[in-house]
Design brief:
The protein is built from 15 helices and 10 strands. It is of the alpha/beta class and 444 residues long. The longest helix is centred in the middle third of the chain and has 18 residues, at 261-278. The chain starts with 8 loop residues before the first helix and ends in a 9-residue tail after the last helix.
Length: 444
């Protein structure tokens, strides 16, 4: 089981390797391949990469034997693609290489890039590049102007990598991303519809407000049975009725937080119903009830909620996530009327964690325009969803006339994947048709 941790994407993608396709594993070891090209010896792919403008290349050692070579790439990107005079920053990516004539998978992160192979890379073989999201720690300007953290600018970052590498990877390009990374992949399709030959996204919902009521309605009134939903509500009240004892059992360090621990706990409690259904372990019979030991109640809550995600260091690390959901992406809201008599912060929302200097006026039309385009025009996109996952309520369901489709595994959660999906064969066939390759294929 993996906690979803508010979908704070740099951290989630560091731990749920299969779903995110990156972020974990051992640290890459640099290789010195900066020497001159020797007569009659073919240049390495690293030498090819070093001929590309604005790119710093370091060959690295990884445990992934399915690739011939791997590289850390750092590309000079403009802070504002519409006005290069605004300055630049370095954006990190990791490239796994086999053969420039084979397809390349672009793994699109919602935080720092990882170097772990994705499921799509394994399916189609070839090469993979994992690209970090602007304004996280591997793509950070010296001075942050939050105005330039936007879907349009991030899509332009990805397009810059594409234009740079397309001459040496001239064939099929495939985009993929999980949750927020999937959202970034869809934004890229929307702004640059001719770049990718196919895209596969997982557990990707596009919210329509700061508190998308579609998810709220599902979590509180629709999913499972009324008895199960009541049991979740009872568990929330059980925790709040024992705040002092639960906080003691959780052993959170108040020195690490800029908010009272009571607020940290209350946020975790209102978030719990979402995290429960987003997780693979969502058996209502396991939920702790009145009479359980305090230690058991606290441990159960801690399985689903990452409380330290809201400490000072991690909120700073994840500031870009909160700026994004506040200004453009939106999020889900919390129902607290059944808990208000036990809460000191009944109006708490995820927007509370957005840094003041990053807040702009929320414009829902950007996500709505993208949703409309994806639904009615976005081609060669596969939306992989879990039927239990609340995010599926905000999923894209393309019209039948498109060569795109939603593949819903009715029993899966936010941790949905292709390998156990009932529509696996359809997904394989679509990719084979769109890319003109055998799926699945073994690289070696």
């Amino acid at each position: 089981m993996t906690k979803q941790w508010h979908l704070i994407l740099p951290i989630v993608c560091g731990l749920t390797l299969t779903a995110c396709g990156g972020g974990g594993g051992s640290s890459p070891t640099p290789v010195d391949n900066t020497g001159p090209i020797v007569d009659n010896v073919p240049p390495t792919w690293g030498h090819q990469l070093r001929l590309l403008p604005g790119l710093t290349v370091t060959e690295i050692m990884t445990p992934f034997t399915e690739y011939d070579s791997s590289y850390k790439l750092e590309l000079v990107q403009p802070i504002d693609h519409n006005d290069p005079s605004k300055g630049t920053f370095l954006q990190t990516a990791y490239l796994h290489h086999n053969d420039g004539a084979l397809p390349i998978v672009m793994k699109i992160a919602a935080g720092p890039a990882g170097n772990v192979p994705t499921a799509i890379s394994t399916l189609i073989g070839g090469n993979q590049i994992s690209i970090s999201h602007r304004y996280f720690n591997t793509a950070m300007p010296e001075t942050i102007d939050w105005e330039y953290l936007s879907a349009e600018q991030q899509a332009a970052d990805l397009h810059a990598f594409y234009e740079l590498l397309k001459p040496i990877y001239p064939n099929q390009w495939v985009g993929t991303g999980y949750s927020g990374g999937g959202e970034a992949a869809l934004q890229y399709n929307y702004h640059y519809p001719d770049d990718l030959d196919a895209t596969v996204v997982y557990a990707t919902g596009l919210m329509n407000s700061h508190a998308d009521t579609r998810l709220e309605e599902y979590v509180y009134n629709t999913v499972s049975t009324s008895e199960c939903r009541d049991r979740i509500s009872d568990f929330q009240r059980l925790v709040l009725s024992n705040k002092t004892e639960i906080l003691s059992a959780l052993q959170l360090d108040s020195e690490l937080f800029d908010m009272p621990l009571g607020k940290v706990l209350e946020y975790g409690v209102v978030e719990f119903p979402y995290m429960f259904w987003m997780n693979d372990e969502h058996d209502c019979a396991t939920i702790r009830v009145e009479g359980s030991e305090i230690s058991a109640i606290a441990a159960y809550l801690d399985k689903y909620i990452w409380f330290n995600g809201n400490n000072r260091e991690n909120l700073l690390y994840s500031a870009a996530f909160y700026v994004d959901i506040y200004n453009e992406a939106g999020y889900f809201g919390f129902k607290t009327d059944h808990l208000a008599d036990l809460m000191n912060y009944p109006n708490i929302t995820s927007m509370d964690f957005t840094p003041e200097e990053g807040k702009r006026t929320y414009d829902p039309s950007k996500m709505q325009d993208m949703t409309d385009w994806l639904t009615n025009q976005g081609e060669h996109i596969i939306y992989v969803y879990g039927g239990v996952d609340p995010y599926t309520q905000a999923g894209i369901m393309p019209i039948d006339a498109l060569e795109s489709f939603a593949a819903i595994n009715p029993d899966a959660s936010h941790e949905v994947n292709i390998s156990g999906h009932p529509d696996k064969d359809q997904i394989h066939a679509a990719l084979a048709s769109w890319l003109g390759v055998q799926v699945p294929v073994n690289v070696k």
